[in-house]
Amino acid sequence: LLLWCSRPAPVSLGKLVLIELEKMKRPLLPLLPWFVEKVEVDSLENDTFKFPIYHWIVDEEIHRFRECTALTVVQDDHPLAKYTRQMELQERRKQYCLSGILVTKCVAFSEYVQKHWREDAFFGYQFLNGVNPMMIQRCSKLPSNFPVTENMLYLHGARSLEEEMQKGNIFLCDYKTLDGVKANVIHDEQQYLVAPLVLLHQTPDGKLLKPIAIQQTPGEDNPIFLPSDSEYDWLLAKTFVRSAYFNEHELNIHLLCTHLLAEVFTVALLRNVPMVHPLYKLLIPHTRYTLQINLLAREKLISEDGFFTLFTSSGGAGMVNILQNSLSCLKYSSLCLPDDITERGVQSVPNYYYRDDGLRLWGIIHRFVNGVLRFYYKNDTEVEDDSELQNWIKDIYEEGFLSNQNTGIPQHFHSLSELVKFTTMVIFTCSAQHAAVNSGQFDYGGWMPNAPTTLQLPPPTKKETATEETLLNTLPDISTTVHGMAVLYLLSKQSTDFVALGQYPNERFCEEVPCRLIKYFQSELEDMHVHVKQRNKDLPLPYLYLDPKQMENSVSL
Ligand SMILES: *[C@@H]1O[C@H](CO)[C@@H](O)[C@H](O)[C@H]1NC(C)=O
Ligand SMILES: [Fe+2]
């Protein structure tokens, strides 16, 4: 709703700092909620003052809104302005407490999965471009708890394991966050969840990534399964990994590292940064619906009668353990894609589209954030001196990361470049990273054997015992399968009022520089979309999750 007053103000107004809006109750009529988009005031001197509002007014109180020019607490020197800044944050702290692709495409994708789920190459592919592309790391030395020996392995014509490790062709996935976790009980039956170690080899010929050894749970007595084992020994071993992959992905990579982190960033922003601040204007579009969807997730997914508790092996008490383990392993560097890729040593793995698209997006977002923040902060001292900004990062460090120094999360911003990097990470996490780990859930999980939410039999402790029947009895029952598919379907669906990354329907910035930077940001995203579309044409399985046109600005699903 755009409000205007046709009469120009009769007197000179000077420079407008703020306006007050109040909804007056009319006799006998109920007070209806009022959504105000913006207010514009024309002055006698032909200046137009713009006030971005984008707020519901549901009471008879007076609400104050600032003129659109973004100002940090240091720049904002008008006494009235300073006062309203404080009042706004005081109110927000009362309200927000810190304590602790399109459907048709989805369906065609599950068909591909149904056809290929048994294949080693597809199993390997999902570590690079499936819903959890974050787990795989280069292995230059075998972990001491994984007693694989050279003579066990088939290395696709390569000479030796040592040589392949040196060349960077051996990779490891270690589900250590699931180790020792007690699996759920479903319909009075004990369920099974393992913490496997998976060794993979990048084949010299076709540049495929294939599993070469799997151990269900680290330990001397547990057999190490190999592709040369019987068909069902090997398929079952992979199935246990796929189920661990599902649970690790949903709780750690999806829930914790996108949804819950986005919530921490959002609540800390609302409590510490007023609407007139440039950081608020920059970040608030990337928090849309996040608190609402997380409230729903708490009610429907992880509550006592939620999906996770009723239908997954990680539900119940185990879930808390997994989240604690995951939080204690979480590092700032793993949230910053360029650092993460280097740390995992996966810079040169072929066909790693998550990495390629992700790094490009990181660069685009970084250029945008850098441009905007450098317009408002001229040097490091100005960053140091901004108490609102510093309170934001302090809340994130203390409340979100429990003051754990080992995470490497900044406790304070000493420089502009540190602030730019952190803010880039926030936008990347809320948009790109969430899209990468959220949008493919039904594509990969819609064919249940590829992503069983739980397993009903323990992993075999001896080889040559598994048959097709063992596999069928291990997979979840029909009720669990149907509930799993329904939830994954809903969680992968694009919402009806989707806003793509870089689209800002609410005009919060009015200065020329940030407005120009937004246009440039959008043009870079458009170029990337064209490039991704072109690249995907030549792929057997297109990688769609980091196409800028397909991803939301915020964690909203
Ligand atoms: C930072 O910029 C402000 C405003 O331009 C200036 O007053 C201040 O001296 C600068 N500080 C340093 C350390 O360069
Ligand atoms: Fe999600």
TrEMBL record:
InterPro entries: LipOase (IPR000907), LipOase_C (IPR013819), LipOase_C_sf (IPR036226), LipOase_CS (IPR020834), LipOase_Fe_BS (IPR020833), LipOase_mml (IPR001885), PLAT/LH2_dom (IPR001024), PLAT/LH2_dom_sf (IPR036392)
Localization annotation: Cytoplasm
Protein residues bound to Fe cation: H254, H259, H434
Protein name as it appears in the record: Lipoxygenase domain-containing protein
Required cofactor(s): Fe cation
Family according to the record: Belongs to the lipoxygenase family.
Pathway: Lipid metabolism
Segments forming domain Lipoxygenase: 116-557
Source species of the chain: Neogobius melanostomus (round goby)
GO cellular component, one term: cytoplasm
Main location: cytoplasm
Note on cofactor: Binds 1 Fe cation per subunit.
Any Gene Ontology biological process: lipid oxidation
Claim: Cytoplasm is one of the keywords in the record: yes
GO molecular function, one term: iron ion binding
Keyword annotations: Cytoplasm, Dioxygenase, Iron, Lipid metabolism, Metal-binding, Oxidoreductase
Domain PLAT: 1-71
UniProt superkingdom: Eukaryota
